[in-house]
Amino acid sequence: MTVTVESRPTGHPGYSQTLPRKAESAAVARKLVRAALLAWHLKEDRVVDATLVMTELVSNAVDHSRLPSIRVLVNRPTESLIRLGVVDRSKTIPTMRTESEGNRIRGRGLLIVEALTDRWGTDLYSWGKQVWGEMRAEHDR
């Protein structure tokens, strides 16, 4: 699968990649996020947080999407903002679980997204959705 790089008005390229809807795709998505944020000279702790956010977004799409692929996106809508997104073909809006459901290990990923991003949300399309999280870009230099 190839990585798509698009130029943006902010001067920072945006990155996207179509991946199989499999748990293993989270590792590929983390590499894409890491490469983009390091190319943008962002702080290592920001890179760590962003890779965790992307892991949770991919995990959610793997669990709840319908078709065999998902698309991950990493871009800078403004100089001071990072946007991480996962696009899938399901129109089901994710919900955040706030209560413990017994001994369930999974199902609380959006709580992590909520904690690590400045804001997150879902954009609905006629054919599916994008779940995204936005974080401030903190530079290393």
Low-confidence stretches: none
User: How far apart lie the N and C ends?
Assistant: 32 Å
The CATH class turns out to be Alpha Beta
Give the strand order of the largest sheet, numbering strands 1, 2, ... along the chain: 1-2-3-4-6-5
Query: The CATH topology is what?
Result: Heat Shock Protein 90
In terms of quaternary structure, the protein is single chain
**In this structure, how is the largest beta sheet organized?**
6 strands, antiparallel
Quickly count the helices.
3
CATH architecture: 2-Layer Sandwich
The helix/strand class is alpha+beta
In terms of DSSP E residues, the strand content is: 25-35%
Q: What's the total count of β strands? A: 6
The tally of domains stands at 1
**Helix content bin:** 25-40%
Write the H/E string, N to C: EEHHEEHEE
Average pLDDT, rounded to a whole number, is 89
Gyration radius, rounded: 15 Å
CATH H-tier superfamily? Histidine kinase-like ATPase, C-terminal domain
Shape: globular
Task: Describe it.
The protein is an alpha+beta fold. The protein has a single domain, classed as Heat Shock Protein 90 (2-Layer Sandwich). The protein contains three helices and six strands. The chain has a six-stranded antiparallel beta sheet, with helices on one face. A hairpin with a 7-residue loop joins strand 1 and strand 2. Helix 2 runs antiparallel to helix 3. The longest helix has 21 residues. The chain is globular.
Summarize the structure in short.
This protein is an alpha+beta fold and 141 residues long. It has 3 helices and 6 strands; from the N terminus they run E-E-H-H-E-E-H-E-E.
